[in-house]
Amino acid sequence: MVKKRNRDPEVLAEAPPAKVEGDDSGSDDDVDMVNVEFEWFNFKPDIDFHGLKSLTRQLFDVDAQLFDLSALADLILSQATIGSTVKVDGEDTDAYAFLTILNLNAHQDKKVVKDIAEYLLEKSKSNPALSALTSTLTSATAQVGLVLAERLINVPAEIAPPMYSMLIDEVEAAVEDKEPYEFTHYLIISKTYHEIESTLDREEAPRTKKNKAGKASKETFYFHAEDEVLQKHALASGSYEYTKDEGDGMADSKRAFQDMGIKPQGSVILIESGKFEGAVKAIGEYLSPPQ
Q1: Contacts 24+ apart (CB under 8 A), 110-116
Q2: What is the DSSP letter of 24?
Q3: What are the φ and ψ backbone dihedral angles of 204, each rounded to 5 degrees?
Q4: Residue 206: what pLDDT?
Q5: Separation CA 193–CA 178 (nearest Å)
Q6: Which stretch of DSSP H or E encloses residue 146?
Q7: Minimum mean pLDDT among 17-31, 53-67, 70-84, 153-167: which range?
Q8: Phi, psi of 259 (to 5 degrees)
Q9: CB atoms within 10 A of CB 164
Q10: Average model confidence (pLDDT) for the chain?
Q11: DSSP-derived 3-state class of residue 133
């Protein structure tokens, strides 16, 4: 069951089973499944520091080296009543997923936040689709909430709607308590990818053959399924190349038993505050487990 401990004892909708390897039950044609009970917790500084560093490193991919992830984890953990972790073996274990929000304005004096804000401003200028993000980040009146969310690769997307719903409730409670969470915009950092032909396949192919060297798929794929819904409610959304992009070789390193290489890109989704709750409702409808 989906349960948020410590702050909200309410039992929410039943969580979906996670897909994991190693279950020998059923036929070979069936997807191996193990039923896992996910639990939602507040951040716990003495337990979650290293798990948060690992998940934020995964979120920022190769550009994670540009930021002080220890300072970022400390800042996230300092917000005792905002954000959630998802675990399966109790509160004192590593998180399988997390979601939180940081006020870019309130924390602008902190180096890690300043570094992230400057990074996002630079990336927004690299894609015309993100022009609204450029103007928002440079506005003197905009209050931007930076949403950070990541999960382990085998954790199902269906955990996302409860996390976002709880975030809305937590932000509303914080605003009532006069805490600095009254945002004009929500800015979600995420990742997308394209499929490209493997450089290894090109090297191994006979020279007499006409190869599709370096051709990449124009289709955008989402690491987070909810992003496809969130961007439909966005003021601006788009992808950008990583600063530390290692080229096609990186795509081959992420090939993982597929014919095509996977080339990740950073992604941002900017949603006006008045549309955020509707966007969260939409991902809940999109990702609801079948009845």
Answers
A1: 110/71, 110/75, 111/68, 111/71, 112/67, 112/68, 112/71, 112/72, 112/75, 113/75, 113/146, 115/66, 115/67, 115/68, 116/67, 116/72, 116/146
A2: -
A3: -85, -20
A4: 53
A5: 40
A6: strand 144-151
A7: 17-31
A8: -70, -30
A9: 24
A10: 84
A11: helix
Tell me, what's the pLDDT at 1?
A: 41
Asked if 191 and 266 touch (Cβ cutoff 8 Å), the reply is yes
Residue, of 147 and 199, whose pLDDT is higher: 147
User: In this structure, what token pair is assigned to residue 49?
Assistant: 């520091």
Read off the amino acid at residue 35. N
Q: How far is CA 242 from CA 29, 70, 253, 265, in A?
A: 38, 21, 16, 6
11 or 228: which carries more pLDDT confidence? Answer: 228
How far is Cα 100 from Cα 235, in angstroms, rounded to an integer?
21
pTM for this entry: 0.83
What is the rounded distance in angstroms from the CA atom of residue 33 to the CA atom of residue 128?
43
- Which pLDDT tens digit goes with each residue over 15-49? 444 444 444 444 445 556 667 789 999 999 999 99
- Residue 179's alpha-carbon distances to 12, 46, 108, in angstroms, are 26, 24, 16
Spatial distance between the Cα atoms of 267 and 147, rounded to a whole number of angstroms: 12
Alpha-carbon distances, residue 209 vs 196, 216, 252, 261, 268 (angstroms): 18, 19, 21, 20, 40
